[in-house]
Amino acid sequence: MASEGSEGTSGYILHHLTNLKLDLHTMKLDPEATGFWVLHVDSMFFSVVLAFIFLVMFRLAAGKATSGVPGKWQNFIEMCVEFVDSQVKDAYHHGARFVAPMALLVGFWVFMMNFMDMLPVDLLPKLGIFAGADHLRTVPSTDPNVSIGMSLTVFLIAFGYSFVAKGFKGVAGEFLLHPFGKWMMPVNFLLKCVEELAKPISLGLRLFGNMYAGEMIFILLASFTLGAPATPQGWMILAIFGGLGALAWCFLLRYMFPDFFKRPLNKFWGLQVPLVLLLGIPVLGAFLPSGAATTFSHVALATAWTLFHILIISLQAYIFMTLTVVYMAMAADHH
């Protein structure tokens, strides 16, 4: 839940939408800094950390891979790799070996960036304040610099690869002779430039727009509960939802890493307790006092939006990955 700030709801929302900025002219952190020579330190930090986590996850799975009976973690990684490989084979038919790894990296990196939206709105920003960072945005894909930067990188790789696949003459022919022939070269060139520039813009803005809207809804829902933990009922709601979330993570980790949970769980504790908690939370809301009931309704809305948002972050990662493969295929196709 949100903690009430001195500036009220508008200040709370503005604070969560402000990046941790480093002005390269003064080499100082300045939340008001603007311009080209300003780095969004939080976006860069979380992007690099998430990329490192991705590499570690898949490297550990590759190091422990076995031709015998695979573990659940190896099964999960193999399913992910096979899914991406099938998508690449359906859209790309030119045999470049780097396209599938590139699609795997892009898809999972974007998903992990988007997944940061699943964390409580105030969790990492509060920890950042203790570390001396007054502003901290934890979802890199809600930063247009990141989303547009990734789309431009994909565009430049695809554009550079088109010279490898077609040669300079082939690329020049597409810009100057397609689709109206040699007598309409200026028009052909203008249309081709618009077509090429539309790719990175649409790819980046689609990701940024959807994730920014999702982040805004989370912040708005959190702003409804400003000051709620000051009451015993608010703390009770936090404990219930926090306990339920921790329980869900325990079961997920037990499934993914069974070696760390050698002792099997009793069937009652493994199934009935989560079910009772899940069904009991809505019932609990009817017995809370009016203020706590309002807080409960806001937390319930945030939980419902979180469950729906899982679909959105997965879909956006899939679209970004698929369009990356499609743009690589278009770069290699001969017209």
Strand content: under 5%
Q: Could you tell me how far the N terminus lies from the C terminus, measured between alpha carbons in angstroms?
A: 56 Å
Overall number of structural domains: 1
Oligomer designation? single chain
Residue stretches low in confidence (pLDDT < 50, at least 5 long) are: 265-269, 279-283, 285-291
Number of strands: 3
Major beta-sheet overview: 3 strands, antiparallel
Number of helices: 10
- The SSE string, one letter per element, is HEEEHHHHHHHHH
Strand order of the largest sheet: 2-1-3
The residue fraction in helices comes out at over 70%
Helix vs. strand class = mainly alpha
**Global morphology:** globular
pLDDT averaged over residues: 80
- Rg on CA atoms, Å: 24 Å
Key terms for this structure?
335 residues, mainly alpha, 3-stranded antiparallel beta sheet, 3 strands, 2% strand, globular
Written overview of the protein:
By secondary structure, this protein is an all-alpha fold. The chain has one domain (8-332). It is 71% helix and 2% strand. It is built from ten helices and three strands; from the N terminus they run αβββααααααααα. The protein has a three-stranded antiparallel sheet with strand order 2-1-3. α6 runs antiparallel to α7 and α6 packs parallel to α10 (290-332). The relative contact order is 0.13. Mean pLDDT is 80; it is low at 265-269, 279-283 and 285-291.
